[in-house]
Each structure stands twice: as C-alpha cells, then as structure tokens.
Task: structure prediction
Amino acid sequence: MKLKRSSRLVDMTGYLLQRPHQIISLSTFSERYGSAKSSISEDLGIIKENFESQGTGRLVTIAGASGGVKYIPYMEMSDAKELMSLLSGQLSQSDRLLPGGYLYMTDILGQPFYINAIGRMISAVYSKDAIDVVMTMETKGIPLAYAVASQFNVPVVIVRRSSKVTEGSTVSINYVSGSSKRIQTMVLPRRSLTPGSKVLIIDDFMKAGGTMKGMANLLQEFDAEVAGMAVFVETKDKAPKLIDGYLSLLKLSMTEQEQSFAIELGNVFNYYSLEEKI
Amino acid sequence: MKLKRSSRLVDMTGYLLQRPHQIISLSTFSERYGSAKSSISEDLGIIKENFESQGTGRLVTIAGASGGVKYIPYMEMSDAKELMSLLSGQLSQSDRLLPGGYLYMTDILGQPFYINAIGRMISAVYSKDAIDVVMTMETKGIPLAYAVASQFNVPVVIVRRSSKVTEGSTVSINYVSGSSKRIQTMVLPRRSLTPGSKVLIIDDFMKAGGTMKGMANLLQEFDAEVAGMAVFVETKDKAPKLIDGYLSLLKLSMTEQEQSFAIELGNVFNYYSLEEKI
Result:
C-alpha cells in the first residue's frame, strides 16, 4: 500500500512507539509504505525532531547492514517532577494510613495511566543501560514491572512465595525479611532466566530492603546479574537499609506512633540529574 | 509552542495512542500547538483515516460543548488471526506439558509485546461496551488484566486469596474450585469497587470455571455487574464449564493419560465476527 507522507508519519509514529528498544530497518518501512528509503529517512528526521523536542524519547540511528532506527523512551525531568508531585499529593490523603506503618496504594497502582507513566519514568533513568529482563516479587509489584518491561521490550520474571504446579521445576532460596525478621522463601521457575542476564529489579514498596536483597541473592543462583533496582515508595527509617544502590521515587515517613505520615521525594532525581539532556 | 503539520501529526498520534477511550477536546490540541481548530480538525481527519485503514482503531468525534475526539483501540481480524497462530505455535512445543494437565505459559505471559497484543485483541471484542473496571485473580492473570485495562484506560482490581495488611478492610467469599472441588477463599479490598461498576473479568487460564464464577459472585457483594469475561486459554473437557458467556482465545486439549496435548482456537472469533468492520 502506498501512503502519503502525512499518513506515513501517523503510522510510523505508532509503529515505533509500540516497539521500543527494537532496531527497525529502513527496508521494513519502505516495504510497508511502498516508498523510497530517502523519503523514509526524511520522515524519521521529522519524528526524531518531534520526539526529542517533546521529551518522548530518542530516535537512534544504527549504521550498517543490520542497521536501522531504534526508539528509546524517555521522560523529561519537568514531566517527571510533575508526575511525582501529582502522585505524592494523592498518596498524602490521610485515609490511606493502615495499621503497621503501611499505606493504601492499591487504587493508584491499579490505574494503568499512572503505572505506565511511572514505568516510563523508571525506564528513563536506565535508558542507556543494557537490560535483558525485569524481575519482581508477587503480587503488587507486577503491574509496575510490566510497565517498565514494556518500555524496554524485555520479558518479566515473577518471583513467588511458593512453587506452583503451573511453572515446572523451580529454584528457591530462604531470606530474612528485614522488617518482620522472619525467614521467608522465594521461588523462581528454573527456565525463567538464562545465565548472564542483566536484570532490573522492580518493586512497589520497600521497608528494610530484605525482599530486594533476597531477589539480588536469587539472581546469583542463576548466574545472572543486577543491572538496577528501583522501588516506587520506600520508607524513611533511622536504621540503614539492607541494600544500597537502589532508586526510589517517593519516600514515606511515619510519626512515632504511626498516627500521621508524610510523603517526600525519593532519591530518583539524583540519578536523573546525572543524565545528560537528550 | 507552534508546530508544523508534520510535527503535529507525530505528536497527536502519540498523544491519542496514550489516552484511549478518553475524550480530548479540540482546544487541548489547539492550545498545545498554537494552531487554529480548523487545522487541528484536518490533522485529526488524516489520523482517523490512517487508524481506520491500518486497523489501529477508530477515532470517534463527540459533538457539543464537552465534545472532542476519542481514540478506541481495535485489532483487525486478520491481525488477530496471525497473533493466534503465532501463539498457538509457541504453546504447542512439547516441553510445555506439566503434571496435572497444566501448560507452561509463564514465558509467553512474561513478554510485554505478546501481553499487550493479546490485551488489544480482547479489548477489540468489547470495544463498544461500557467498561468501568477490569478484574482478575492473582497472580498470573495480572499482566493480561493490565494490558486490557490500558486499552480502556480504566483501573484494575486484583482479587487475592487472603487479605493483606496493605489493603485495609476487605470483603471475602468462599467458592468451590471446579477442578479440585476444594473450598477456597477470595478477597477484595472494600474500597476497590463502587456500586454499579461494569466489570470485565480477565484470567490467563480456565479449567472448570470455578474461579471465574467466584469472581462473578464476588461482584454481587459490591453491587457491581459483569460486563464480560475473557480467558487466554481454556481447557477442552467433556464436562460442561461452571459458567457460560465467556470468551476464550485458545483451547487446550489433553489426551487421556495427559501425555500429549493440542492447542486450538477458542471461541473468540465467534464474537469477533459479530463486530462490524470498523
């Protein structure tokens, strides 16, 4: 089918946005639209300029026989700050406080629009890193893990608390929960990770960091490595966390008797500011 | 910022694709680009024509003071058939057979590209229905539920097997698992559903249908109603299912001794064919 430039631009934009971090050859587009590669190159120039000026992401050209273009999602710092202020406003509502120093976040984590935006923001920090897999622990971290993985176009592996008949043989480790001090188990299907995989660990909430540390240890059993760790909300405590080098978007602090709380920014913008402007 | 038509088309396409089922006024775009509404209308005409000819979805114009345009995602039947043939090929690999008549699908359900495509396909069937919420049971149905919910721009609620401290007060019911005949519990946070909500129930796998039926019963406790039910894979059994009126994408049949299996199409294209061409 032969398309005009205006229609090609609409279609290519959708095509690229659906295939982040994937090299797409000029031939793919020139065959799809029955257009010369020179026209396709001009189209890509227009898209690149728009994506970069609007902060949607970068469009990187890869030279050579297996070359093409690759869309790398990004989120401008100003958009990220706006998102954080929106979310911290919502999370600060007083009826969210639950016994045990927890915060009701289920409704926020249930909104695809928020989850996808948070996922794009986390992926922006790691956008120049090689990420092969995103990992999380069931249950509440799963949506965010998928949102991040969608931006990298890589698979998600879900660590479970016990092995399931639907997952075949598994590898399990014991770990100590940092906040409850109890020994717990985490389990991952044997075929879910190949050795050498670079894994980005994602979770929705972190207290002492025991679960995060457990996931990092579990990776060693698969000869895989930690490429990054990010949580949506961490608690602000006097005691040091069991891990470091993680990214947190927001931070929850609780008064002594857990009667009131406050939400502040996590450490995310320390990492953001190290990124050069796209 | 004033943008040229070509750059506006790129930006509007991304803007609309990120906001399905949401009414966007012409003023939003004309302010965003510093362009006259007449130019914006022409741009939308180009996008509409491309979306509809490529099967991306419909662009519906809503008249009146609160009017604008709304993007409704779709997937052409030919693309849906191609997706099903790809997935049934992958699922037919013999090493996927697990004890108990289960199939290893964790790797497929871990790929955002597949999950998002399956989500778009399911949303295409219900694209003309009013959907307020997507519901699923933890754990493996969660990614698919989010993929569907993203297409409708509605929240997801996750039913759990036991109540969690992080979710506040809950409503729970007992139900009988259709395949194991055991009494089980399902739990949903009290604040997760408002009365009258139209709920699309999603799951990855269905044997007898006990879980699906349990979720439908749970909705009654919230005075909410079932707007639809869809599963990725159902089993093909002699015994009738505990529910009807559900959609299945693929069907798994097992030999008597569970030594081999086959994947065939589910009932999805019966529903698809009722849809007029967009």
